[in-house]
Amino acid sequence: MLALAASLIDWSALWKIVLAALIGGAGVVIVFAFLLMAVDRATRASSNSVRVATYALSGICSVFIVGAVVIGIYAMTQKPKSKPVRPAKAAALVVLRRTG
To answer: How many CB atoms lie within 10 A of CB 54?
Structure first.
């Protein structure tokens, strides 16, 4: 069964897809969590330097999230080029007729 799957599945492409899904899925969620924590801490900060630093962190996180969304939309709109379809070899057509 595994030998059959090995001939049908492109494992390197599958790992690339899994890695992109982890980065795109979990990575964006984690960065968004940092964004929310930074904004919350900035609003509660008593020091100006802490407030500026946390707003800077939230700005960096925002740029990353917007970039991920733009890259995702761009990737969805681009159609990958497929290999040209080769015509099948001509096969003889056998027609069976009923007599009678």
So the answer is: 19
pLDDT tens, the chain, 100 aa long: 566 666 778 888 889 989 988 888 899 999 999 999 999 999 999 999 999 999 999 999 999 999 999 988 998 898 777 777 676 665 555 556 666 5
* Whole-number Cα distances in Å, 31 to 6, 67, 75: 36, 12, 20
Q: Assess contact for 28 and 65: CB atoms under 8 A.
A: yes
Of 24, 19, 26, which is closest to residue 70 (Cα–Cα)?
A: 24
Contact 45, 51 (CB under 8 A): yes
Contact 54, 45 (CB under 8 A): yes
pTM above 0.70, yes or no: no
